[in-house]
Design goal:
Oligomer: single chain
Shape: globular
Largest sheet: 7 strands, mixed
Low-confidence stretches: none
Order of helices and strands: EHEHEHEHEEEEHHE
Number of strands: 9
Distance between the termini: 37 Å
Strand content: 15-25%
Mean pLDDT: 96
Helix content: 25-40%
Structural class: alpha/beta
Number of helices: 6
Radius of gyration: 17 Å
Strand order of the largest sheet: 3-2-1-4-7-9-8
Length: about 240
């Protein structure tokens, strides 16, 4: 078993890349072990297919140099926050024992983002209850609860509770996002148009990070929301 420092969940392949891959790249550079769990294969996406998304997700994982990436194969658009789905996520949390979990925005344009956010958050709590018994690969799992859950920001301009300076990792973020080249702006594409296939959306990856960075005095930043108060040892920890 690989014990991870950070485990990032996304309702769809590319959610993590769009929402927090700059932060992931930075933490990996600092020696942290990071993994990604995709809940669905994105089979309802306007462009491409589940098989194409599988290949793109693998390429993005290689670019980011994450330790592991798995896909739970939930139904795109139709998964729900129930015991069956919670248990599958609990198995992943107990398998990798992350200290920090990153997951979808608490509410967003795509219905799977809010659903995925609550599903993962609930599973993080339940994973710490020892009377919930799970088994993986024939072995009983031990209870494990991450210390914190943070939600990355997606389509909607949600006010962040904190931001991470990703200035020196912005290009790696863009490279990871563009691993999903079937999904985004391509003036030569003959496939249907969607909100995420516009040039404006592609440009927004940069200008939104640049705007968050501007506010805190750096070049680029990614924003997150929290489920509880942030705590620091000293005012000097804040900048």
């Amino acid at each position: 078993m690989i014990k991870l420092d950070i485990l990032a969940f996304g309702a769809h392949p590319d959610d993590v890349e769009l929402g927090c891959s700059g932060t992931i790249a930075k933490e990996i550079s600092l020696g942290k072990k990071v993994g990604i769990i995709d809940l669905t294969r994105g089979e309802l996406g306007t462009r491409g297919s589940a098989e194409i998304r599988d290949k793109e997700a693998a390429k993005a994982a290689e670019i980011l140099e994450v330790a592991v990436r798995e896909n739970l194969g939930f139904r795109d658009g139709f998964f729900v926050n129930d015991e069956k789905h919670q248990l599958e996520i609990i198995k992943m949390i107990r398998k990798y024992q992350p200290e920090i979990v990153l997951c979808n925005a608490i509410h967003d344009r795509h219905i799977d983002h809010g659903k995925g956010s609550k599903l993962v958050s609930d599973a993080c709590f339940l994973s710490g209850l020892r009377k919930i018994e799970t088994e993986l690969n024939g072995e009983n799992q031990q209870a494990w609860r991450p210390k914190v859950v943070y939600h990355y920001i997606q389509w909607e301009n949600i006010e962040p509770d904190f931001v991470v300076d990703v200035s020196t990792f912005m290009q790696k973020k863009i490279d990871a996002v563009m691993a999903y080249d079937s999904q985004f702006y391509n003036p030569d594409s003959k496939e249907p148009v969607s909100p995420i296939t516009s040039k404006n959306f592609l440009d927004s990856i940069t200008y939104r990070a640049q705007d968050l960075g501007r506010i805190v005095g750096v070049d680029f930043a990614e924003g997150f929301t929290t489920e509880r108060y942030l705590a620091v040892n000293s005012l000097a920890d804040l900048r």
